[in-house]
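Team,

Forwarding the record for the chain on the shared tracking sheet. I've put the sequence and predicted structure together so nobody has to dig through attachments.
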Amino acid sequence: MTVTTERVKEILNSAEVTGCRLVIPQRLNRADYVAVNTVLTALGGSWSRANQAHVFPADPTDQLATVLADGALPRPARTTEGFVPTPAELAEELVREHTRLAELPAPRVLEPSAGDGALVDAVRTTAPDATVVAVEPNAARAATSGAGRACRS
């Protein structure tokens, strides 16, 4: 997918990035907002009403520069990496109902593709004494997979 209009590039060039927050200083009409939001969502951002900004898991400056330079949006992780997040409720049910972790003394668990950490959280909830080694091949996801998790990229 490409950024097809100069207007979208103009708006994105005026954006102010502070850490993980991106603010567009001017008010946009609906069509411009939808076009810009499509780009920012593809980069991993989501609108936060509380912050009045698009919030990203990591600083979006480099990704934004790439989009502005060549107009191409990154393909979604589901397409490039096969990443599909596991809903927390499903992860909890899976670990609670289909494993014996709660019965084992100090179990050891390997999560070879930790993603956003839903299964790791479910293991730690079900078996707080478990030793969990979580590996996530995507370095950005590994870095933002949650506080208190040891995740390897």
